[in-house]
Automatic annotation (TrEMBL):
It comes from Hyunsoonleella jejuensis. This is Glycerate kinase. GO terms for molecular function: glycerate kinase activity. Keywords: Kinase, Transferase. Belongs to the glycerate kinase type-1 family. InterPro entries: Glyc_kinase_flavodox-like_fold, Glycerate_kinase, Glycerate_kinase_RE-like, Glycerate_kinase_sf. Transmembrane segments: none annotated. The keyword Transferase applies. GO terms for biological process: organic acid phosphorylation.
Length: 374
């Protein structure tokens, strides 16, 4: 029997790698001849970098870049020299995690530092760059990022525009003549798990800017800026940003990744699956065991378990889910396609106990599952 173990983390409780090791050990105690393949996954959120490095075996690179407010900071990314592949998280250079909540001010923030990380990876020899664009503090439509790579944003008087969200409406044209010469040689894959358009009531400014420090007036200003900037993008690149799903992700970095990097926007879990060569490794698999902290309605929206189920369904493989808690009824679980579900909270009603001792409860869950296979 072959079992693939492919979980996400239990947030603030258990990493995906800990899950894999625990489940493997527990199952082998009951089924010593079982073949176990550990393929931990992530959806592009917190902890993704650890899972990516499980497959890349890369080196952590530290580089000095600009913060969202043009202060010099240290940022890190992963680089695998043999594969010439880099994994970058936008939040490292341009994220809210770098700021105190009272300092959030997305209209004056820039993605310049993210561009500087990309530039360092290109100069290091990267031919493939995976960019996660979650957790941004910005709303500059990637203008800062593109500036670092040689794009020039000019106003009506041919003067360079400072790359911040408040200045989007000032951009009259985009000069591409000085873009980095190696940019065209790099393949970009962008982890993007939202589908918001660039502007409008469901767009970047109206949906996300408030939580990044924007006032009501700021949101109106930023949305107008995104509309004006979209017209310039369409004139220069022949792409209507409003027709691109996910264009509004990360303050417009969705469309910026597409037009300035020629990147492909993908669900985070699909990017990690590709990196793991997940589908190829499912040959002759009898069961996939997946899991996450809580099985709930969000699971239907592109999270790790849904990514696992998509692959399993295509190959007619049964899927079991071991979770911290379950907020779905039997009909919803069946609709998802899960054959077996168990949760830590089936063994304790104490949430604190569940969080603190999830590893021990997971071992019990795995052993019970294995006994059902005898």
């Amino acid at each position: 029997m072959k079992i693939v173990v492919a979980p996400d983390k239990f947030k603030k409780s258990l990493t995906g790698l800990q899950f894999c090791d625990s489940v493997e050990a527990s199952i082998l105690k009951v089924l010593p001849n079982c073949e176990i393949l550990k393929l931990p996954l992530a959806d592009g959120g917190d902890g993704t970098i650890e899972i990516v490095n499980y497959y890349l075996k890369g080196t952590v690179i530290t580089v000095t870049v600009n913060s969202p407010f043009f202060k010099k900071i240290k940022a890190t990314y992963l680089y695998a020299e043999v594969e010439q592949t880099a994994f970058l998280e936008m939040a490292e250079a341009s994220g809210v995690k770098l700021l105190r909540p009272k300092d959030f001010d997305c209209k004056n923030a820039t993605t310049l530092g993210t561009g500087e990380m990309i530039l360092d990876a290109i100069n290091r020899g990267a031919k493939k760059i995976i960019l996660g664009i979650g957790g941004s503090a910005t709303n500059d439509c990637g203008m800062g990022m593109a500036t670092a790579l040689g794009y020039r944003f000019l106003d009506a008087d041919n003067r360079i525009v400072k790359p911040i969200g408040a200045n989007l409406s000032k951009v009259s044209t985009i000069d591409t003549s000085q873009m980095h010469p190696k940019l065209k040689e790099v393949k970009f894959n962008i982890a993007c798990d939202v589908s918001n358009p660039l502007y409008g009531k469901n767009g970047s400014a109206y949906v996300y800017a408030k939580q990044k420090g924007a006032t009501t007036d700021d949101i109106v200003l930023l949305d107008k800026g995104l509309q004006d900037f979209a017209k310039v993008i369409e004139a220069i690149f022949g792409i209507n940003p409003q027709q691109v799903e996910g264009a509004g992700a990360a303050g417009g970095m969705g469309i910026a990744s597409k037009v300035f990097l020629k990147g492909t926007l993908q669900r985070g879990v699909n990017l990690v699956k590709d990196l793991a060569q997940f589908d190829k490794k499912l040959i002759d698999t009898d069961w996939i065991i997946t899991g996450e902290g809580n099985l709930d309605a969000q699971t239907f929206s592109g999270k790790t378990i849904q990514g696992v189920l998509a692959s399993a369904k295509a190959k007619k493989i049964k899927v079991a889910a071991f979770c911290g808690g379950v907020d779905l009824n039997k009909e919803e679980i069946k609709e998802l396609g899960l054959v077996y579900v168990d949760a830590v909270l089936n063994y304790t009603n104490n949430t604190e106990d569940a969080m603190k001792n999830s590893l021990g409860y997971l071992k019990i869950i795995a052993k019970n599952f294995a006994k059902n296979l005898i």
